[in-house]
Amino acid sequence: MTNVLFVCTGNTCRSPMAEALFRKMKAEGMDVRSAGVFAVSGQEASHFAKEVLKEKGIELDHQSSMLTNELIDWSDCVLTMTSEHKRLVLQWFPTIHQKLYTLSEFISSEEESIEDVRDPFGGDLKTYQNTRDDLEKLLEKLIKILEDKPK
């Protein structure tokens, strides 16, 4: 089993969208969760995050979670949405450097530029659709890499 943890800021937009999309797209033998570095536990996902997932046939029933030791211990791979999230996580959990990456960094080859996943928070529906579409492309690559990884 490969346990993947997506991390963003408040766990109401990017990481729950990544979690829901990954859950729908994923292969056998993978589990997924999400958390935020500054999450207030128990908040619903943002309205537009729910809307853009619904366009893909995904009903999102999500409650935000703060990043915890338990989630870190559960995960085989911690993927942050930005390099700043990665820096914070490494500062708080310095022993996990071997399993901590930005999502873009994890799937990038040497010649590709590494970009952060844009935060749609406060944006309009189109902004959320763009973030969802970016996440889908990244997750397709991620799943391929994880499927090809020796068990």
Describe this structure in words.
With about 150 residues, the protein is α/β, with parallel strands linked by helices. It has a single domain (about 1-145), classed as Response regulator (Rossmann fold, 3-Layer(aba) Sandwich). It has helices at about 15-25, 45-55, 70-75, 85-90, 105, 125-150, and strands at about 1-10, 30-35, 75-80, 100. The protein has a 4-stranded parallel sheet. β3 (about 75-80), α4 and β4 (about 100) form a beta-alpha-beta unit. α2 (about 45-55) packs across α6 (about 125-150). The chain is globular, with a radius of gyration of 14 Å.
CATH architecture: 3-Layer(aba) Sandwich
Please, how many domains?
1
Unreliable sequence segments: none
Helix-strand topology string:
EHEHHEHEHH
Beta-strand segment tally: 4
Pick out its properties:
14% strand; 151 residues; alpha/beta; Rossmann fold; 6 helices; 43% helix; globular; single chain
Describe what is shown at a glance.
The protein is α/β, with parallel strands linked by helices.
Q: Helices and strands in order, then pairings?
A:
Blueprint: E1 2-8, H1 14-25, E2 30-36, H2 47-54, H3 69-74, E3 77-80, H4 83-92, E4 100-102, H5 103-107, H6 125-148
Parallel strand pairs: 1-2, 1-3, 3-4
Helix pairs in contact: 1-6, 2-6
